[in-house]
Write a structure and sequence with these properties.
mainly alpha, 4 strands, 66% helix, 289 residues, four-stranded mixed β-sheet
Length: 289
Amino acid sequence: MSVDWGFTIRKFIVYGALFALFAIAILFMAAMGVQPWLIALVSGGFLFVQYFFSDKLVLWSTGAQIVNESEAPRLHMMIESLCTRMNIPKPRIAIVSNDMPNAFATGRSPKKSVVAVTTGILNRLNERELEAVLAHELSHVKHRDMFVVTFASFIVSVLSWVVYLALSMVIRGDDRDNFAATMAAWMVSMVFSNTIGLIIINTVSRYREYGADEGAAYATGSPDGLISALKKISGARYSGDDARGLESAKALCISSTSGSALLELFSTHPPMEKRIARLEQIRTKMRGY
């Protein structure tokens, strides 16, 4: 498997920027006179919830149900085979009763992971395509990509709190009981988390998708299955209610839950045509011509 150094370097720049932002947020709070114990409490609290409970919240909010081998023998067999090839522990497997063709992986580590697929994707893909989608999700598991999005969300939460803290101090001044100023600071922090914050999280999410696509291509021995699956997924029809049912897992899903974004910066996924073009380039490299 050849290494795409351009992509790898860009990925590490994005991830490095996350750590830098976190460090700046902590230093800013310290400079504003926030007590160290409060910084540790708020930062640690955000990280604790994100790390230990994000997967449970995703499964609960999407209605995903864990299934055993007798309930889904086909899924278990395919995932066991892929896990052997990819040298990772077998995750728990879940099915979401949702007609939108999609899949996602969640969990804080390979040993604590879950791979979920919708009934919509099970009904639409053939064996080769489904295997490619599962390989994509297992690639996320292998490279601990789920935690990267969790960490990005954590950093955005901390930064939003920093924005609120700074603005409330500046606007209120000596008037600690100024309710209007407090609400204004809170609203600005919410705008921040839904603009700059979304750009940060979604940029990380897009890099994850490219990396998992490549991982799936090499795990299955060919990008063709995933190319075909992505084409079927992008051309599928489903209700708006089904798309909204997966909204809480949108950064984790193999396909965007909200259609094409006006600006790629605000999209959780790269455009489907770019993903397919990249997979076609990988196919050329694998074939040697």
